[in-house]
Amino acid sequence: MRKVFLIISFITGIFFSASAQKFAMVDMEYIMKNIPSFETANEQINQISKKWQSEVEVQLQEVQKMYKNYQTELVFLSDDMKVKREEEIIAKEKEANELKKKYFGADGELFKKRQSLMKPIQDEVYTAIQEISKEKDYSMVFDKTSSMNIIFTSPKLEISDIVLQKLGYSK
After folding, report:
1. Where along the chain do its domains lie?
2. What are phi and psi of 142, to 5 degrees?
């Protein structure tokens, strides 16, 4: 009986301590879409990405052209010439794949460019959220766009517009 009482007391204590915490919600997509420098940076990244993608596609088309030429001339080539052409095609394909990796790989140029353009904006937003959290004594701030488990949030918990005002982008 005493153990049951202790367990109930423990659960009740956890419930009351959890209910004393203050929570808030932000919509990071909404915030970022309302920051002009973010949209500008996003457009720059898209333009650079398209440019680099076209460079990679040009090289891959060249590989395809080399392979088609090889196939049409295959019957006229000696064994040594076949091997030489195959090696050229493989080298060109490898070069195209390396260029693709250089631009679009995990630590590629696009990732670095995105970091250099987006990180300062994101840091500014996160700093504003932290300041608001301290001012209003929020224990936690959730991002509505990244959490799939949140079904409903009260509009009273939404602080996205407050974050935008803090950053100087009032709506």
Report:
1. 22-167
2. -105, 150
The gap from C-alpha 98 to its chain's centroid, in whole angstroms, comes to 22
Read off the pTM: 0.67
Structure tokens at 53: 């993608």
Instruction: Say how many CA atoms lie within 13 Å of 71 toward its Cβ.
Output: 6
| pLDDT (tens digit per residue) in 43-91 | 999 999 999 999 999 999 999 999 999 899 888 888 999 899 999 999 9
Q: Which runs of consecutive H residues, i.e. helices, occur in the chain? A: 2-19, 28-33, 36-73, 79-104, 109-136, 160-167
State how far the Cα of 38 lies from the Cα of 101, in Å rounded to an integer. 26
Determine the Cα–Cα distance for residues 171 and 163; give it in Å rounded to an integer. Answer: 11
